[in-house]
Amino acid sequence: MGETFTREKVARYAAEFSGTMFLIMFIKLAVVYDDYTTSLSIGLGLALLIYNYGYISGAHLNPAVTMAIIIRNVPDFPLSEKGQIVMYFVSQYTGAVFGGIMATLIGGDQSAAVFPTVFRSEEDLNNSDRLFQAFMGEIFFTYLLCTTVCHCATDKRQSGNQFYGLAIGLSLSLGCACLGPISGSCLNSAVWFGTVIPAIITDQVPYGLSDLWVYWAGTFIGGIVAGLWFNLLNGRESLGKPGVYGDGYRSDNREELQNLQEEDTEIE
Fold first, then answer.
1. Confidence band for 91, pLDDT divided at 50, 70 and 90
2. Which of 46, 100, 123, 250 is 20 to 30 A from 188, comparing alpha carbons?
3. Is 246 left (phi over 0), alpha (psi -120 to 50) or beta?
4. Is 34 helix (H, G, I), strand (E, B) or coil?
């Protein structure tokens, strides 16, 4: 328990709380008041938060991203530290709820009503095709977001780059632009949770929440697949360990190369 709540780790949880809070505020307020560049505003907002908090907590700000990084099992976020993992999830969901409430105080009932939903009319309630489209969209675009994180922010072969925040933010912008009319482009179960609470409080959920599984199952599946696929295609060199191409090291010795590949297989 003591290792879970060191000063450094509490700073990480606070960063996750604050970053997710602001992300929810950006979404709720931009959807209502930004008529022309909503997708870009939200994506650039995420990029800003990543540059602000990335060096402290990694700026996951999304349980699906956290899930992908858990599967990656990178040294900076090891699977063995289960208390830290739980606190990341807690910080993200509580930060999201607080952000939703703050956005409501600032933007009023219009902002409170904003949350991702498949149902835009009563006709959509029995439209299984629309639910399937939204579900597939959430999986693939959450995968895009999470795999961008894996490549740009966790792969040691790209360590030191300064484009990671912009790349991740733009992946969210693309998701918003492509999926907005279909599912609302959630890509983040904390976003769904933090945006829907004020809508429930202000009684602005006209078609119910029976589509919630799209935003929980779809986003977590996307994150899990992103982590697993990255690990499958990228060996130990992505963690900064000696490999065929990692850290400027190259082995021309076939026997040595075979030994490294066997070690990779054992690790997997």
1. very high
2. 123
3. beta
4. coil
Pick from 123, 134, 153: nearest CA to 61: 153
Contact 77, 239 (CB under 8 A): no
Q: Which of 137, 171, 144 is nearest to 39 (CA)?
A: 171
Asked if the model's pLDDT at residue 44 lies above 70, the reply is yes
Tell me which residue has tokens 């604050």: 18
Spatial distance between the Cα atoms of 22 and 48, rounded to a whole number of angstroms: 10
pTM, two decimals, is: 0.88
Q: With the CA atoms of 170, 172, 173 and 174 taken in that order, what torsion angle do they form, in degrees rounded to the nearest 10?
A: 90
For 144-200, the pLDDT digits (tens) are 999 999 999 999 999 899 999 999 999 999 999 999 999 999 999 999 999 999 999
Token duo for residue 14: 């606070």
CA dist., res. 203 & res. 219, Å (int)? 26
Instruction: Count the alpha carbons within 13 Å of 22 in the hemisphere toward its beta carbon.
Output: 17
> Is the separation of the CB atoms in 154 and 231 below 8 Å?
no
Is 267 a residue whose pLDDT tops 90? no
Q: And the tokens for 25?
A: 């505020």
